[in-house]
Amino acid sequence: MADATDSATEATSETTNAVEAPEATFKTKQSQEAEPKRSWGDEVDNAPDEEPSASTASEEKVVSELNVEGLTIEEEEKINTFLDEPEDSNVTAVTSDKTPYTSAKTFEDLNLSPELLKGIYVEMKFQKPSKIQAISLPMILTPPYKNLIAQAHNGSGKTTCFALGMLSRVDPKLKAPQALCICPTRELAIQNLQVVSKMAKYTGISSECAVPEEFPPSKIAVMTQIVIGTPGTIRKWMTIGKLSLRFMNILVFDEADHMLDEDGFRDYSLRIMRDIRKSSAHCQVLLFSATFNDTVRNFVTRIVEDYNKLLVKKEELSLDSVKQYKVYCPDELAKVMVVRDRIFELGEKMGQTIIFVSTKRGASDLHKALVELGYDVSTIQGGLDLGVRDKIVKEFKDGLTQVLISTDVLARGFDQQQVNLVINYDLPKKFGMCSEPDYEVYLHRVGRAGRFGRKGAVFNLLMADETALMEKIEKHFGSHVMEVPSWNNVEDFKVALKTAGLL
């Protein structure tokens, strides 16, 4: 987990007069812990002043208002035979009724406004919907606007799905928040805002970020139509009356599994959903992520009713275009030497590289070691000032830096198409469980390479105590990770990179 060793309790605390959809009912169950653990994302945001953000009493109040006794699990789900999926799609569509959805072969099939289509073709330079877009967008945009739980591959175009969903449900003439997107980290919120702003260039639709800032936000009412931000800041804006929910048509959770995980942001998410239900009961809910573990999936199906869903089998989640390798290293120095003498030297002309480490201390130490060896690298982790974090991400996205060392603050959703190499300097572990890998975080890390089908490679650097972790990861995903025969043989790394299509 991101920075779990250094700071186990660090929190990342951080819009239309459209046709009304059926009431979206939110429900939940009582949390078992008084203080929700936030296991990665390492931002800090002040909690609302209204009540303790994670007290037992307040959680019981939320549970009471959401009618936990009425919880039911849908016993009979129907595979949507009306949905014409692309032939090579691995996505399974499951619907709650017989609404006839037809897969979109072109963006024109979606009945989007001319202005929005212009943004898609001119600004985004898209040609046709991706597999996940072709299947999910008709489900999002077709009345009666049912809720959607969507799980799909990293790099498959999920951001465009919910961005188009939000833009399509906004009335440009109504200057009030009508769409809300909640993200686990500042970096992901800013990235999503950039996508929405670019796509909306010709529509007249406004958007803004609700993320932690160095200076307190003003109390002037938000009049932008789309708000994208982190849960702590969004909740704060709601509490002080800065963010109105009266005209909210669509609520999106990006990286929804973490937003609704007990170790993530469940408390904030439930409060936000509760307040939206009070002000705008017709609001459509979209939950997107590449991963949903069994516990979170069961919980999600209980708090969002009358939903459609898209699923990908666990063993099909890792991207076929990304080759994964394991490199056994005798000690920590060997790991540094592999990064320096093998990955850097061979990968210099291949694009950009992200090196994932488990802790802030580890990030700082590796940065220092590589700089002392003469390499120009940048590092991002939650202990940095917000402005510095923004600068580091911008420089990397602009291609001014080639190698970025990161904690898991960038593991989820971070999109940089020039990243061809990912190095797991440390394997991700579940919070407080040194012998148990974090499978979801591992998958998200892998997804930073080979975006949208591009070639990519992932090197897992393993010492003796990490061998069992790697074996568990392979077993969990039902796939064999190839071994680089020798950590100290350049030819072995050349073969690996050639196999990945990078040499």
From TrEMBL:
Domain Helicase C-terminal: 338-492
Domain Helicase ATP-binding: residue ranges: 139-310
Keyword annotations: ATP-binding, Helicase, Hydrolase, Nucleotide-binding, RNA-binding
Keyword Ribonucleoprotein: no
Region ranges (Disordered): 1-63
Motif (Q motif): 105-134
Gene Ontology molecular function, alphabetical: ATP binding; hydrolase activity; RNA binding; RNA helicase activity
Bias kind Acidic residues: ranges: 42-52
Pfam families: DEAD, Helicase_C
The UniProt record lists the keyword Ion transport: no
SUPFAM superfamilies assigned to the protein according to its UniProt record, in alphabetical order: P-loop containing nucleoside triphosphate hydrolases
Basic and acidic residues composition bias: residue spans: 30-41
Top-level class of the enzyme under EC nomenclature: hydrolase
Entry's EC annotation: 3.6.4.13
SMART domains linked to this entry: DEXDc, HELICc
Domain DEAD-box RNA helicase Q, first and last residues per copy: 105-134
Record's compositionally biased regions (Low complexity): 1-16
InterPro entries: DEAD/DEAH_box_helicase_dom, Helicase_ATP-bd, Helicase_C-like, P-loop_NTPase, RNA_helicase_DEAD_Q_motif
Name the UniProt record assigns to this protein: RNA helicase
Organism for this UniProt entry: Tripterygium wilfordii (Thunder God vine)
